[in-house]
Design goal:
CATH superfamily: Aldolase class I
CATH architecture: Alpha-Beta Barrel
Helix content: 40-55%
Order of helices and strands: EHEHHEHEHEHEHHEHEHH
Strand content: 15-25%
């Protein structure tokens, strides 16, 4: 199998504008996501300038930008402004704020007004259920379940993702999203769960050409790497 046979849609996850545009030129990226943490790591200082620059170049694929306030009134103001930047924008709303107060009322209000929402930081089925209930039918929406973070706790995320898929399919235009991808094989896990979308960082996306590679040849190449590195390092045992 190669990446062209994949049914799950791949969204590039990052905040480096050059990296985003590199991915935009490929034939396997279906959308983009970012968040304040990725922007901080990329050294972004002006949120709106960065977003508008990206949207000037990426006009025909969905791009998700996140609100950054912690109170729902401010979140709403940010969400409405972010949504106005372009028709292909999805506004990322955290499923709750730092106090643990859920965002369902805000999600419902925004969705009812036709704003496309990407609900992020979802980790439980209860959160998925309440989120899906908050959407207006026919208005684009994503439910971003952080499968990688679930796995970090020692819990298998696949049963949660499979149930998420079923719940999302119950409302028109709502798509399930596997977030916090940790390795290339997560793409195949997401696909076998029936997930609509998986977000993948550029570092992992660079491994796509590895799909279907002969393991015997890969073994030889791995040994060659070790040998070359030992030689260039001048290692000796006397």
């Amino acid at each position: 199998m190669n990446y062209k046979n994949l049914k799950v849609k791949i969204f590039a996850d990052g905040a480096d504008i050059n990296g985003m545009l590199d991915m935009y030129r490929t034939d396997y990226i279906s959308g983009f996501t970012t968040n304040p943490t990725l922007m901080k790591k990329a050294g972004i200082k002006d949120y709106e300038t960065f977003a508008r620059t990206a949207l000037e170049k990426i006009t025909d694929l969905p791009v998700s930008f996140e609100v950054f306030s912690d109170d729902f009134e401010s979140m709403e103001k940010e969400a409405r402004k972010i949504s106005s930047w372009a028709k292909n924008v999805f506004v990322k709303i955290p499923v709750c704020n730092t106090k643990g107060e859920h965002s369902y009322d805000l999600i419902k209000k925004l969705s009812a007004d036709g704003i496309k929402v990407n609900v992020t930081a979802v980790l439980t089925i209860e959160q998925v259920q309440q989120t899906v209930k908050s959407f207006t039918k026919g208005v684009g929406a994503y439910v971003s379940v952080f499968a990688g973070r679930i796995a970090d706790t020692g819990i298998d995320p696949e049963p949660i993702m499979k149930e998420t898929v079923i719940l999302c399919k119950s409302v028109k235009s709502v798509e399930s999203l596997w977030a916090s991808c940790r390795q290339l094989f997560d793409i195949f896990k997401a696909q076998r769960c029936g997930v609509d979308i998986i977000t993948v960082t550029n570092d992992i996306l660079k491994k796509l050409p590895m799909i279907g590679k002969d393991l015997t040849q890969l073994s030889i190449e791995t040994v060659q790497m070790f040998y070359n590195d030992s030689q260039s390092s001048g290692f000796q045992i006397k």
